[in-house]
Amino acid sequence: MIVAATQFAPVAGDIDANVRTIAGLVRAAGAEGARVVVFAELCLSGYEPSLIRDTPALVLAEDDPRLAPVREACRAVSAAAVVNGPVRTADGRTAVTTLVIGPDGGLLARYDKRHLYGIEEEVFAPGTADGRFALDGVRFALATCYDNRFPELAERAAADDCAVYLASSVLSADNDSFEKVYPVRARDFGLYVVLGNVLGANEDGVGTGRAGAWGPDGERLADAGTDAPGFVLAEVG
Questions:
Q1: Which spans in 3-54 are helix H?
Q2: Which CATH number does the domain housing residue 162 bear?
Q3: How confident is the model over 135-173, as pLDDT tens digits?
């Protein structure tokens, strides 16, 4: 199976603009054979916890009509999109949520980030369950940025017969995760690890890109570099 790892600079607080970019990347990656397209943490809103706290309109629902262009793109190219944004929980709070929109435009999975960091703890509710979905016989696990610092998530994914671990993150150039987290999770637990990251300024700093993938041996399979928006493809599973 081919998976695409993406990177772009989200527009802070502009869900419609970010949805257009996401839908375009899904269509482009799907046209090159990707069955799953992975995006960064809070790609729908931009990584702006303070802005999200102060702007209730930025909080989405699972079936939010603003996501229609992404659903249409998934159907058009028969690919799943792994998108992330501020999404309302059943009890009315807000989570850092991954929504997996399937090739038919339906919701394949939801995952709420379990491990919150810094200001996130003031703005968001933590998740309580792991994220899983399957496509074409391949089983996937979901994780979000700081989650990946906790090896037990990847350990549970491997124990649950997942072959691919999808990480939606916001990472700057000085973040050591590129060397000390993602390849280690891949090697220690025999997983393919796929990273979606951001470019551009955000509340955490400046995204450095380098979206891509690692094989079960911990070696890089694909690296999108630090400059240009777009995606890279990796064979996984």
A1: 15-31, 49-54
A2: 3.60.110.10
A3: 999 999 999 999 999 999 999 999 999 999 999 999 999
